[in-house]
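step=encode ok
step=design start
structure_in=
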């Protein structure tokens, strides 16, 4: 069962990680932007799944919604609107479905992780360990973003929209199937005009990890690009394979 505490204020970790392939990583370094994508383009068909929102409502909830949604109307006009919806209950559900479809088409997210050394993440998102993992600090720059960790569930547990609008939308955006639990995902929703490429500050990129299968010449080129683009304080690491366990370790780079 989904509880409100699932979506209480989230304290973002000091560093969150963005996996990507080599070409995307070079663009991030050179353009100093992060791509925010629409869920329609994600690899999970259940992302922002409409069944996570329960569209049922009580008489009181319908009236409260009308009071809020049509606050620009006079009270008699709102009462007439309430009567219209009472006589045709599907009308309100259809309106919400259309609103959710429109919201899904216009919401843009950027996905991060709590961890930097997941073997599957390096394989799936960093082109078989030949790409990057960027470590960002957004602690001092949270005003432009809404961050929250993803909640992983075995079952679809909808929340009634007309009872709690905000929590139902959070449940809709930040809930995924348990199959994805290994990603330990943190999502960012940009606050402001819907942009696909969102700029970040140089001092937000704190760490860069190079995949254990990255070509050495590409790594040298990437290090030069980091320094030439102002990321002189960014700490650089190589990911290396452990000799005793099936795990990845990081080793700090002190020179090219």
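sequence_out=
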């Amino acid at each position: 069962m989904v509880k409100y505490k699932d979506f209480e204020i989230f304290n973002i970790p000091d560093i969150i990680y963005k996996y990507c392939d080599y070409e995307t990583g070079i663009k991030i370094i050179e353009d100093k932007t992060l791509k925010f994508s629409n869920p329609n383009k994600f690899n999970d068909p259940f992302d922002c799944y409409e069944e996570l929102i329960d569209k049922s409502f009580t008489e009181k909830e319908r009236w409260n919604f009308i009071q809020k949604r049509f606050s620009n109307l006079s009270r008699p006009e709102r009462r007439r609107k309430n009567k219209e919806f009472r006589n045709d209950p599907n009308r309100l559900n259809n309106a919400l479905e259309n609103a959710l479809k429109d919201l899904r088409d216009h919401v843009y997210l950027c996905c991060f992780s709590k961890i930097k050394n997941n073997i599957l993440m390096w394989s799936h998102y960093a082109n078989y360990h030949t790409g990057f993992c960027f470590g960002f600090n957004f602690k001092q720059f949270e005003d432009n973003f809404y961050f929250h960790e993803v909640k992983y569930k075995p079952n679809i547990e909808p929340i009634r929209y007309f009872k709690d609008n905000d929590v139902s939308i959070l449940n809709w955006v930040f809930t995924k199937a348990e199959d994805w639990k290994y990603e330990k995902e943190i999502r960012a929703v940009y606050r402001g005009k819907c942009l696909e490429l969102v700029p970040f500050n140089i001092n937000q990129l704190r760490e860069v990890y190079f995949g254990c299968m990255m070509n050495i010449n590409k790594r040298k080129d990437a290090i030069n690009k980091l320094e030439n683009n102002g990321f002189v304080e960014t700490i650089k690491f190589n990911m290396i394979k452990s000799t005793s366990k099936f795990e990845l370790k990081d080793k700090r780079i002190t020179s090219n």
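step=design ok
step=annotate ok -> The chain has seven helices and 14 strands.
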